[in-house]
Amino acid sequence: MQIDNLTLFYGAVFLAGLLAVEGIYLFFFRTRKTGNLEVNRRLRLQSKNPDGREVLDELRKETRGGAGIGGYLDGKIAQAGKNYSVSRLLVVMSMVGFMMFLFLVIVLPLPPLVGLSIGAVSGLGLPMLYLRMKSKERVNKFSAQLPDALDTMARSLRAGHPFTAAMNLASSDLPDPMGTELGIVTDEMTYGLPLSTALENLRTRVRLQDLDYMVVAITIQHETGGNLAEVLANLSRVIRDRFRMFQKIKALSAEGRLSAWVISILPFFVAGIIHVINPSYFGAYLNDPVFHKLIAAGLFGIMLGAFTMFKMVNFRF
After folding, report:
1. Contact 96/127 with Cβ under 8 angstroms?
2. What is 141-243's CATH number?
């Protein structure tokens, strides 16, 4: 039995509608029920469950992926600061892919095979890009909270508290992501892990250069002795100065970054407006191989230009 384009279209509409309803339910209802990791999740779990070992196991499960593709996706979800399951992410990927497929087949329209290929790539790529952006946002928030955590620990050490109590105080005073991450370190040390191993686990969960400095300083002072409070206070001051310099550079380069975004998006915006006003402007050439080559060359030029501009206005130090 040969399946025509109309049958394929109706099947895609049915699946897209089904996935859309399920995706809306999972995100807007179940996410409200379970929450996310934007507040201090460790303290919230401890308020519901007095067994600290079970809370630690739950947090470890959320912040460390397992083996295989499911473990990889689970790790990406945890790095983004979310606590929904891999199955929910797969549902969202499928929904995005089918929505993109319908848009390409109905609005443009493109051949079903081409639309299905682009939809599959979009369904996989767009949710992963979102997770990457949220992960970067979480790391930046962790970086901004790090000086406050160091100051809190330094003040606690000057008051005569041991280092474990100082870190536990910082984990209780600060919101996520810093609060939960430091809380995991203190819980791991409470249940038998040495300080160096617990801090190394923290470095594995949060990839941040400033955090590496903190871990090295604490490890050295723990093994050799010395005034750890003064070391942490000096490190906090250095990180604040670097963060202030980074914000200044970001403000000075704001115009260039805005120009890069406008120049990158403008060709697609103009092409969309022209297609809506006059569909035959591009429609007469959609099946022309020369037109396809010109589109590919134009997209390559836009991506190359955008990459160059963003490299010129983004600084790492």
Report:
1. yes
2. 1.20.81.30
